Amino acid sequence: MPHLDIWPFDITSLLFVLLCFTFIFYISKPLKMYNFPPGPRALPIIGNIHILDLKKPYMTLMELAETYGSVFSIQMGLRKMVVLYGYETIKDALLSHADEFAERPKIPIFEKITRGNGIIFGHGESWKAVRRFTLSTLRDLGMGKRTIEDKIIEECDYLVKTFGDQNGQPFQTLLFLNAATSNIIVSIIMGHRLEYGDENFKKLLEMNNRNFVLTGSPQVQLYNIYPIIHSLPGFHHDVLRHQDNLKAFFKKIFIEERKVLDENSSRNFINSFMKKQETEKKNPHSHFHEWNLLCTVTNLFVAGTETTSNTLRWAILLMVKYPEIQKEVHKEIDRVIGTSTPRFHHRQLMPFSDAVMHETQRFADILPMDIPRETTVDVTFRGYFIPKGTYIIPLLRSVHRDKKYWEKPDEFYPSHFLDSEGNFVKREAFMPFSAGRRVCAGETLAKMELFLFFTSLFQSFSFHAPPGVTEKDIDLSPVGGLTLSPKPQLVCAVKRKDFA
């Protein structure tokens, strides 16, 4: 009688399948035992990718919170992540549990770029040492002081002249605003500004802007989930190439800076870092090495350019969209500043303009998912167990759209920051610079830049839509990427003395 093989595979295959199921059982069991945050059911290999809008992932997460609450989980590929939703929850995590949520996860594209160095995606003791040094050096170089204010005012003059050179004709603000805001951090890094027409400068700005779009693209998100695809064609290669070009630019600056290294003074950030290197050159474990300098300088350039420039682009577009608000800004500038040079101390006397800038940051919500965090230890948070090394997404969108704290969360409404008598009021559910241990190192600088650039531009110009375009035609839907930016749209900057 012939032998009938009732098994669809041999005994080796059967043992392999049983081993896989055993492995899956044991790695998933602790999460259930220790009350890991709930979330949608994940599929093998892909996790929850199939339910996520990779062009607007923050919107999917906002919707999932309605089902799973203020602390929930999703799975991207094989990696489980915890999402924090709402002001109270995010405040609790980033401020009340600051140390537990202070690490940065190893995101493949950024690990390729930094190897764990720098002040944005750095890890552990290296990040702590460099961040302390950076904050101290930025203060020494004038951040928050009159010296840096004078540099910003000087740059405002260049920007106003450049806008005026457009003679009221339609133009794109992107390159000019990028160059102006970049020049502030460039002057800190290198000790001098760059001309807007400098071809190398323009290329750096274009690559930087392009990288912010690419790093948030579905292609690069998939690369971060499945880094094994590195050798395949994709946008991740463009991102890495652009970063290499940026590093090559600063390497040339380093060579020149070392030729005139001054041990007795700190002319700029690069000089200060190199002096620190000299004092620690005998320390084999020093974090102040060439690669960390390169990563830190590029971090400062990238972050110091994009977010401030982006906010100003949103502000101009919103003033075009809402001309009645722009008129109130003009009235306040005329009353408080007149024809004098705008200064940062004027902000205390200009509650409406200050409210407009704050509301621009809230409404534009440039970094809706924050830069991810990672838990440094096992932590029990709001009744859930979150193991050490868990990828954390603080959903800042949920802070700036929290209905408990905002009267009209989905509208541009400067009165959010004004009381009944027109005085400026701080709002607690406001985190455009994040919070906790990883709060933006340049927050003080950015606040000064935003106010001075904004008031200088609106002191000189009225902004309008191009001929044939109405306020209703202005599109406020954002362009996705690592940050949310306004769609490219032409505007007209009309000199106010010529405006009827």
Automatic annotation (TrEMBL):
<keyword id="KW-1133">Transmembrane helix</keyword>
<keyword id="KW-0256">Endoplasmic reticulum</keyword>
<dbReference type="GO" id="GO:0005506">
    <property type="term" value="F:iron ion binding"/>
</dbReference>
<dbReference type="GO" id="GO:0005789">
    <property type="term" value="C:endoplasmic reticulum membrane"/>
</dbReference>
<dbReference type="GO" id="GO:0006082">
    <property type="term" value="P:organic acid metabolic process"/>
</dbReference>
<keyword id="KW-0560">Oxidoreductase</keyword>
<dbReference type="InterPro" id="IPR008069">
    <property type="entry name" value="Cyt_P450_E_grp-I_CYP2D-like"/>
</dbReference>
<dbReference type="Pfam" id="PF00067">
    <property type="entry name" value="p450"/>
</dbReference>
<feature type="transmembrane region" description="Helical">
    <location>
        <begin position="6"/>
        <end position="27"/>
    </location>
</feature>
<keyword id="KW-0349">Heme</keyword>
<dbReference type="InterPro" id="IPR017972">
    <property type="entry name" value="Cyt_P450_CS"/>
</dbReference>
<dbReference type="InterPro" id="IPR002401">
    <property type="entry name" value="Cyt_P450_E_grp-I"/>
</dbReference>
<keyword id="KW-0479">Metal-binding</keyword>
<dbReference type="GO" id="GO:0046222">
    <property type="term" value="P:aflatoxin metabolic process"/>
</dbReference>
<dbReference type="GO" id="GO:0020037">
    <property type="term" value="F:heme binding"/>
</dbReference>
<comment type="similarity">
    <text>Belongs to the cytochrome P450 family.</text>
</comment>
<dbReference type="InterPro" id="IPR050182">
    <property type="entry name" value="Cytochrome_P450_fam2"/>
</dbReference>
<dbReference type="GO" id="GO:0005737">
    <property type="term" value="C:cytoplasm"/>
</dbReference>
<dbReference type="InterPro" id="IPR036396">
    <property type="entry name" value="Cyt_P450_sf"/>
</dbReference>
<feature type="binding site" description="axial binding residue">
    <location>
        <position position="440"/>
    </location>
    <ligand>
        <name>heme</name>
    </ligand>
</feature>
<dbReference type="GO" id="GO:0006805">
    <property type="term" value="P:xenobiotic metabolic process"/>
</dbReference>
<protein>
    <submittedName>
        <fullName>Cytochrome P450 2K1-like</fullName>
    </submittedName>
</protein>
<dbReference type="GO" id="GO:0016712">
    <property type="term" value="F:oxidoreductase activity, acting on paired donors, with incorporation or reduction of molecular oxygen, reduced flavin or flavoprotein as one donor, and incorporation of one atom of oxygen"/>
</dbReference>
<keyword id="KW-0492">Microsome</keyword>
<keyword id="KW-0408">Iron</keyword>
<keyword id="KW-0503">Monooxygenase</keyword>
<dbReference type="InterPro" id="IPR001128">
    <property type="entry name" value="Cyt_P450"/>
</dbReference>
<keyword id="KW-0812">Transmembrane</keyword>
<keyword id="KW-0472">Membrane</keyword>
